[in-house]
Specification:
Elements lengths: L1 H19 L21 E8 L6 E10 L6 E3 L2 E13 L5 E13 L2 H4 L5 E10 L2 E11 L5 E10 L7 E3 L3 E8 L5 E5 L4 E2 L7 E8 L5 E10 L4 E10 L4 E7 L8 E9 L6 E9 L11 H6 L7 H9 L2 H15 L9 H17 L9 H9 L4 E5 L8 E6 L4 E7 L6 E3 L3 H8 L1
Parallel strand pairs: 12-18
Antiparallel strand pairs: 1-2, 2-6, 3-4, 4-5, 4-7, 7-8, 9-13, 10-11, 10-13, 13-16, 14-15, 14-17, 17-18, 19-20, 20-21, 21-22
Length: 429
Amino acid sequence: MKKNILWVMIITCIFLIFYTGGLVSQTPELRYDTRDEAPNLFYDIMTMASEDTGLTTFQFYSKIAYDELQFVKRDNQYYAQYELSVTVFDQHGDQADGRIVRKEIFVNSFEETNSRKKFDVASVTINLKPAKYELLVGIMDFDSRKTGRRKTQLTVPAYFHEPLELSDVILADRIVSDSSGNQEPVPNVMGNYGNQQESLFLWFEVYNLIELDSVKVNYRILNLKDEEIRSYSEYRRLEGDRTQVAVHIPREELSAGKYKLEVWLGKGKTVVKRVRALSVHWMDMPAYANDLDKAIEQLKYIAEGKQMKAMRKASDEKKSELFREFWNEKDPTPGTEQNELMEEYYRRVDYSNAAFTSFIEGWRSDRGMVYIILGAPNDIERHPFEVDSKPYEIWSYYQYNRQFIFVDETGFGDYRLISPFWEILSEIR
């Protein structure tokens, strides 16, 4: 009964996405969090030695799916425009550098405007002094005026200070050569090796101040339990003080899940090591759900117990088949490349993890459960410092004429629902 109620709630939200342009709870002046409004941008960063002495090159790469942008029809084409800003602040909060990139996209069909498999790629290059910074990334869709910002810490190291060094390591979909013969990576950005992808590479630079002719480079692929999936090594001929290296990552040995890629070279006191995360999942899965086992566990609010048990016990191949069957049966638009219901469900899971994680993962929390099932509330009353009560929140859903109360019993952000949730769901079905 509970599962059926939840399906009604989520399918209702998907219907409203199609016919009103947003979720029922997304009243502009009462939005819960601007993150729901902002286009979802993926980005990756790396540092490498600059040609300018004393500086380090900071390289920023981004990808945005066409479906995240607002297209308008112009003549016989569809047109979208967005602006990407990359700003670097020093430890005093002063702007050290920044760039603004404006991108225009033209496609020939309406179907392309809704694609989650086609992306626009942007890059920004900035030379910085080695230090610690704060990176602010902003994006704005020119037609919808939707904006978003993200902050992260950035450490820019110095290179050519040790006998043997490695740049940062990035993942690249392919490697191309410029007119001078220098290699250039086409960045993967999302850190994902999809089932329809023909190749994926590790790309990095080796810096050599001790005039070695060659060096042994070692690689390992580990799962999240630090169990070795594969290891290999090769000797690389060094081309002066800077050598670019591209290494193909084998796909056939990697099932859906998360991995760590290790690269190290040298021996004794000159060992240098880099670690890179890698996810393996199918192209038709949402980017939020990049771990199959975890994605199955997160079905607890909508899947029956026997379905969960069958998926957990199945082999990797059968597990992925059952997972696909589960979502194919719920697809509100069969025959299209996007399963809107699956996308929306895992978007809510991802948001819950970011917003509500405390002692447990956010999707497992009471606030996460309500958010996943009902979406963003129209309004939240927060009472974190009441004198005569514990911290609490009141979530209001105007369309259902209901409120849910969460109390932080421990004082550590572990808000528990005190409203009779499932009984209320049966009433508002």
